[in-house]
């Protein structure tokens, strides 16, 4: 239990120990009770000329924001996501893919927020497709959602519990919307959470940094791709029976 009578600096140390650096976090990784969660890297919201960006001027994102976002995705985020996916697969760790996708063609099952936004990725539509560079492989789990967070509108928590997953590494878009919401919810549900800084994107560096600043030291570890790769290799480099 957190000691609320402690000073601000000491209380932060309590948060770090309880949520970020607890020994159970790396123990879960060693025991393969960890998963990479890839969020919303699909044609709906991550590809120029499709979905939200079919008409760029009507997207609500400035040209400067669009240029920044798509450049970061192409040059940094997707290559890093791919590296992380490959390492998790090589280490016998789960790679889970979340996307915005309705259950029905007309989207009548969507959340009220998505209906008000006019946000629809129908089953089988181009908008619901993952970008091929980071698409699921084999029978990797796909979670369809119609809300910002991956937990409230899906059975993700139930699925993770069934597989004994305790530690989550999160990548994808948008940093300040679906990624941050999912990270907060995961922390509240008891998972150890890491958000990978250079494998996430939103429409400005300022929004990205502000979002990670909120998560850091409270809801999630914030690490780079290289740091995560090093951690995964270090903790999973022996066969399971030798741990």
- Average pLDDT, to the nearest integer? 92
Largest sheet: 6 strands, parallel
CATH architecture: 3-Layer(aba) Sandwich
CATH-assigned homologous superfamily: Isochorismatase-like
Radius of gyration: 18 Å
| Alpha-carbon distance between the two ends | 30 Å
- Give the tally of structural domains: 1
Low-confidence stretches: 1-8
Pfam families: Isochorismatase
GO molecular function, one term: hydrolase activity
Keywords: Hydrolase
Organism: Roseibacillus persicicus
Notes on the structure:
By secondary structure, the chain is an alpha/beta fold. The protein has one domain: 3-Layer(aba) Sandwich (Rossmann fold). 42% of the residues lie in helices and 15% in strands. The chain has nine helices and six strands. Strands 3-2-1-4-5-6 form a six-stranded parallel β-sheet. Strand 5, helix 8 and strand 6 form a beta-alpha-beta unit. Helix 4 (63-90) runs parallel beside helix 9 (225-235) and helix 7 packs parallel to helix 8 (205-215). The longest helix has 28 residues, at 63-90. The relative contact order is 0.18. The model is unreliable at 1-8 (pLDDT under 50). This is N-carbamoylsarcosine amidase. InterPro entries: Isochorismatase-like_dom (IPR000868), Isochorismatase-like_hydrls (IPR050272), Isochorismatase-like_sf (IPR036380). Keywords: Hydrolase. One of its GO terms (molecular function) is hydrolase activity. Residues 77-227 form the Isochorismatase-like domain.
């Amino acid at each position: 239990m957190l000691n609320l009578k402690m000073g601000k600096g000491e209380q932060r140390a309590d948060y770090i120990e309880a949520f970020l650096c607890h020994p159970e976090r790396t123990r879960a990784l060693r025991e393969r009770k960890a998963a990479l969660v890839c969020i919303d890297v699909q044609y709906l919201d991550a590809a120029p000329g499709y979905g939200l960006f079919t008409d760029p001027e009507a997207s609500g994102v400035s040209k400067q924001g669009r240029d920044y976002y798509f450049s970061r995705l192409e040059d940094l985020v997707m290559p890093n996501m791919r590296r992380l996916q490959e390492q998790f697969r090589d280490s016998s760790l789960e790679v889970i893919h979340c996307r915005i996708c309705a259950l029905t063609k007309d989207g009548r099952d969507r959340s009220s927020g998505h209906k008000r936004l006019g946000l629809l990725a129908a089953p089988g539509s181009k908008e619901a497709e993952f970008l091929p560079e980071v698409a699921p492989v084999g029978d990797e789990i796909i979670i369809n959602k119609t809300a910002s967070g991956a937990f409230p509108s899906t059975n993700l928590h139930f699925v993770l519990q069934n597989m004994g997953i305790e530690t989550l590494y999160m990548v994808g878009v948008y940093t300040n919307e679906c990624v941050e919401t999912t990270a907060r919810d995961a922390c509240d549900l008891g998972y150890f959470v890491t958000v990978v800084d250079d494998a996430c994107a939103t429409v400005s560096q300022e929004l990205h940094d502000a979002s990670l600043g909120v998560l850091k030291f409270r809801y999630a570890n914030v690490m780079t791709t290289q740091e995560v790769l090093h951690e995964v290799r270090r903790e999973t480099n022996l066969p399971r029976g030798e741990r």
